[in-house]
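Project outcomes to date are best conveyed with an example. Our students and postdoctoral researchers have been running inverse folding experiments weekly, and each run begins with a structure described purely in tokens. The record below, which covers 144 residues, was selected by the lab manager from last quarter's runs and is presented without edits.
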């Protein structure tokens, strides 16, 4: 499989994980589920704005596809190494996407387990297949 296919698979796995989390929240509160989906989408855009704008593989070269296209088309390119603020923004996004729904997932062990399996599978896909040939020398995940 190509790096581009792995990038799209990893995003698909994360999308399904977020959808499962939204469902777990929706069962008890549809309004909170809608809020989570909005926060997750905003957090994903934060990652695009912080990380993808510094990546040289924007647009059609992006292995993940959509994030690189969004960064190229709608956001101003930034240069230089990632800063502490960049890492803090990505950490905040991860907290919102991954940790916010845990109170609802933990009471549904099946969904909890599937959520974390999907997240782990996406992380493994990214680290072992997408990062292999990445041209972003400043990325901490890029293999040197």
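After processing, the design step wrote out the following sequence:
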């Amino acid at each position: 499989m190509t790096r581009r296919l792995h990038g799209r698979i990893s995003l698909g796995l994360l999308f399904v994980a977020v959808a499962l989390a939204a469902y777990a929240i929706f069962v008890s509160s549809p309004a909170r589920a809608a809020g989570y989906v909005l926060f997750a989408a905003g957090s994903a855009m934060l990652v695009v704005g912080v990380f993808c704008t510094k990546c040289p593989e924007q647009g059609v070269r992006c292995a993940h596809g959509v994030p690189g296209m969004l960064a190229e088309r709608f956001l101003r390119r930034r240069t230089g190494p990632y800063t502490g603020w960049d890492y803090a923004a990505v950490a905040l996004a991860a907290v919102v996407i991954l940790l916010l729904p845990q109170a609802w997932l933990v009471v549904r062990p099946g969904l909890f387990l599937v959520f974390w399996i999907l997240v782990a599978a996406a992380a493994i896909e990214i680290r072992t297949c997408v990062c292999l040939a990445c041209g972003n020398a400043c990325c901490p995940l890029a293999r040197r």
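Residues 3-133 form one domain. The chain has one domain: 3-133. The training component of this project remains on track.
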